[in-house]
């Protein structure tokens, strides 16, 4: 592709992302009202899972091609980016509240999924048996979320004020689910193409551009939800997306395993993955608002993570040296 085509793909992808993100959020909220579900449940199940389609497709394609590092790196890198980048950018625009009922339970399940993923893959590759276990865990999570989802107290008034026909509602959700991966694909294609022109390695492309690129649907939806002042949708989307990435995308690629785990993951990336999950807990557990200052700090931490990735940092070796 020519330079002009690559830049066109980047710009076009951003436009599609913005429009599709707003469409998915509005359609999801309308569906939640019709089903008597809370905005948090809509954020977790519809927005969160719907925007995770690119991670699934990219990781599955890479796994089938034998590129296990890219497949796993896309999942882990996307989860890190979701918290330190995707959640932080909307919070810079509008501070995000975290006192929504049910958020702590969702956070706990995300942290359990993160801990299980790290603990299992540190010692062995992803195998079909592990993949089945992950997928069963995801199914249990879906059932639990729907069963314990709180019905909005102002459901009747919401339905009257924001009523949307079934056709418009499903059209908005479909546009969002189709448009977000399309926009992300264009951005990734343009970004990867430009990176190759500047001779950036495939390894770095997979862990940076692809990880961030497949998180762009979450970013588009998160910004749209933040502008609509739907903090529960923003945070719920991040939690739902991270759980789906680990148990859903991770479980599916494991079915085609064994997927070997490169040393760089337990030595560096898993530390960042765990720290990112703890970062989210620092806000949700005390029900603290994610302020603009906190959001800027998260973006700085993500920049440090990328710097360490490029520099080949080894946290495990560093900690081992301190203990020894």
Structure description:
The protein is mainly α and 324 residues long. It has one domain: Up-down Bundle (A middle domain of Talin 1). The protein is built from 14 helices and no strands. The chain has helices at 3-35, 39-50, 53-64, 68-86, 88-93, 103-123, 128-148, 155-161, 166-197, 202-227, 231-254, 264-284, 292-311, 315-323. Helix 3 runs parallel beside helix 11. The longest helix is centred in the N-terminal third of the chain and has 33 residues, at 3-35.
How many separate domains make up the residues?
1
What is CATH's topology name? A middle domain of Talin 1
Q: How many H/I helices?
A: 14
Sequence stretches where pLDDT stays below 50 over 5 or more residues: 151-161
Which secondary-structure class do the elements indicate?
mainly alpha
Portion in beta strands: under 5%
How many DSSP E strands? 0
- Assign an overall shape: globular
Assign the CATH superfamily: NCX, central ion-binding region
**SSE string:** HHHHHHHHHHHHHH
Q: Rounded to an integer, what's the Rg over CA atoms? A: 19 Å
Measure the end-to-end span: 52 Å
Q: What would CATH call the class?
A: Mainly Alpha
**CATH arch. level architecture:** Up-down Bundle
The helical percent reads: over 70%
Mean pLDDT rating? 80
Q: How would you characterize the largest beta sheet?
A: none
């Amino acid at each position: 592709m020519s330079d002009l085509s690559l830049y066109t793909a980047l710009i076009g992808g951003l436009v599609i992302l913005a429009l599709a993100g707003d469409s998915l959020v509005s359609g999801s909220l309308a569906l939640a009202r019709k089903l008597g579900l809370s905005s948090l449940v809509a954020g977790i199940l519809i927005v969160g899972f719907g925007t995770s389609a690119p991670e699934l497709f990219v990781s599955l394609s890479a796994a089938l091609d034998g590129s296990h590092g890219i497949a796993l790196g896309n999942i882990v890198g996307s989860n890190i980016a979701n918290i330190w980048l995707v959640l932080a950018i909307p919070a810079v625009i509008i501070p995000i509240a975290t006192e929504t009922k049910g958020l702590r339970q969702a956070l706990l399940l995300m942290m359990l999924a993160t801990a299980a993923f790290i603990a299992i893959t540190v010692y062995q590759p992803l195998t079909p048996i592990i993949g089945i276990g992950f997928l069963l865990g995801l199914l249990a999570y879906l059932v639990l979320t729907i069963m314990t989802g709180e019905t909005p107290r102002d459901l009747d008034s919401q339905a009257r004020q924001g009523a949307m026909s079934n056709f418009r509602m499903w059209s908005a959700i479909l546009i969002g689910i189709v448009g977000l991966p399309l926009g992300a694909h264009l951005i990734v294609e343009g970004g990867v193409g430009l990176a190759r022109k500047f001779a950036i390695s495939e390894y770095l492309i997979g862990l940076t551009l692809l990880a961030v690129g497949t998180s762009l649907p979450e970013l588009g939806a998160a910004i749209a939800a933040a502008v609509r002042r739907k903090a529960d949708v923003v945070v719920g989307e991040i939690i739902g997306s991270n759980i789906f990435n680990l148990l859903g995308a991770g479980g599916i690629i494991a079915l085609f395993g064994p997927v070997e785990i490169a040393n760089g993951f337990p030595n560096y990336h898993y530390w960042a993955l765990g720290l990112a999950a703890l970062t989210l807990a620092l806000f949700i557990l005390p029900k603290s608002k994610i302020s603009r200052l906190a959001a800027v700090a998260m973006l700085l931490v993500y920049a440090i993570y990328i710097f360490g990735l490029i520099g080949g940092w080894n946290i495990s070796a560093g900690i081992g040296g301190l203990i020894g």
